Amino acid sequence: MPIVPDTKDWTWVLERACADCGFDPEATTYEAVPGLVRDSAVRFAEVLRRAGVEDRPDESTWSPVEYAAHVRDVCLIMTHRLDIALSAAEVPGPAIGGYDTAVTVDDGIPMFANWDQDVTASLENYAAQPSADVAAQLTTAAETAARAFESVPLADRARVARRSNGSQFTVDTLARYFAHDLVHHVHDVRG
To answer: Which domains does the chain have, with CATH numbers?
Structure first.
């Protein structure tokens, strides 16, 4: 059975704890997010030193290196989305296959371009990327994201942006949504 594209709307994780990974949005402060981002990168680097990280545990689950490449790209995308939310304008985005950086603004609220993570995984051939390269790139992307989120003044954390499906985020909820993604994927690879 091949990888099935993830079409779930994960925004529910902003309302209740994740039963799979234990992430609790109510217990996670904005100030904790940069540390969670950095910790996730460290834990992925440890996972990527294991033998067999290129191997999928089954046909329908990404390998650890594929998850790490995805998390690296999540860091890049979320840093870009933070820039959009703060500027309410189009900002040059990361060069990631399948990611459209176009931004629309409706009623003063910027809308993030859609990102299909499964298309990106295929176009960027996550499965063939060397684990040491992915670990180094993830460390850099996570540090950039952590610094970007920790530099946001309290007054700007209520700024609003919208995802292409209509879900609205403040900078604060975007940060916690982002943190869950990383914590969840560390859990996925038993990091």
So the answer is: 33-188 (1.20.120.450)
